[in-house]
Specification:
This protein has helices at 13-30, 55-65, 144-155, 187-190, 207-216, 246-253; strands at residues 2-7, 34-38, 44-49, 67-72, 88-91, 110-115, 118-122, 171-172, 204-205, 223-226, 229-235, 262-270, 280-286. By secondary structure, the protein is an alpha+beta fold. This is CRISPR-associated protein Csx14. It comes from Nannocystis exedens. InterPro entries: Cas_GSU0052.
Length: 290
């Protein structure tokens, strides 16, 4: 088993989601990955996987080579509304399943990160059976697959140097999944809108957090309290021999009670624009350590 660790801010929901994304990706690419959060000192996320490959380096190497492909259900007409500037789109074959009913627009088409026959899937935004934690509005029908492609393009050439602290990789970013709240703001709270300054002020985002966070939400979601409040959790350890499989890490993210060290957080959101559209994380507080 090879293991690695990175710093993580537990008060940043996107970073916690991204840690889940790392272990999900490592499990897909390398085998039965395990992980744990450790807050005995400065908070860190530890992950291990079978074989000699450094699990975080392997995930980032995959992303460096990946192409983002939007996938359309078989016989759907949605592909006709896809713009070439958004990247590649493919229609699935007749026996290839789709994870949710045909979307009403291209905005929530499933996206796949592909390297040869290997693939990681982004599709939480199309879930219709439970809260999909879709904070971005898809202004003008801009698809999640295109947001993923844009995020990857911003960091693709910097991934070799990101292994020790991937969540610190920053870049000017005009739009995102709104999972990392370091980029976002509420115009009514700061007293002005960046859109009114003709591009003279730009927002700096954290594309790896956004991309890995979206991966992490594929099999786990924070607990929705109402449309502007969620609860999420992180599963910790008191010993270096403690490792957890993805199923327990997923349950902890949703705030489930577990007989292990667990910290829960409450995140509040606001409307950066019109109510009922995009949401931005505004405040995170810890509930009660266990």
């Amino acid at each position: 088993m090879a293991d690695a660790s990175i710093p993580v801010d537990l008060f940043n929901p996107g970073q916690v989601f991204a840690c889940l994304g790392i272990v999900e990706a490592a499990a897909t690419l390398l085998g039965e990955a395990e992980a744990a959060f450790d807050w005995t000192g400065e908070s860190r996320f530890h992950v291990r996987s079978p074989g000699p490959a450094h699990p975080i380096a392997a995930v980032l190497a995959f992303l460096a080579d990946a192409e983002v492909v939007a996938e359309v259900p078989h016989e759907s007409t949605l592909a006709t509304g896809w713009k070439s500037g958004w990247g590649r789109v493919e229609s699935l074959g007749p026996v290839e399943p789709y994870p949710y009913p045909e979307p009403g627009s291209v905005a929530t088409l499933r996206a796949a990160l592909c390297v040869g026959s290997r693939r990681l899937v982004l599709d939480h935004w199309g879930d219709v059976k439970r809260d999909n934690v879709k904070f971005w509005a898809g202004s003008g029908g801009y698809p999640g697959a295109a947001l993923a492609r844009d995020a990857l393009a911003l960091v693709r050439d910097r991934l070799d140097d990101a292994v020790n602290d991937p969540f610190a990789v920053a870049a000017p970013q005009s739009s995102s999944f709104r999972l990392d709240w370091r980029r976002d703001y509420i115009p009514m709270e700061i007293g002005f809108s960046l859109n009114e300054h003709g591009g003279r002020i730009e927002t700096v985002g954290y594309p790896l957090v956004e991309l890995l966070g979206a991966l992490g939400l594929g099999h786990a979601r924070p607990q929705r309290l109402d449309r502007l409040a969620y609860r999420y959790g992180a599963l910790g350890r008191t010993s270096t021999i403690a490792w957890y499989p993805p199923c327990l890490l997923r349950a902890a993210l949703g705030g489930a009670p577990l007989p292990f060290p667990l910290r829960r957080f409450h995140m509040s959101l606001g409307w950066p624009g019109q109510e009922g559209q995009a949401r931005s994380i505004t405040t995170v507080i810890e509930e009660s350590p266990t």
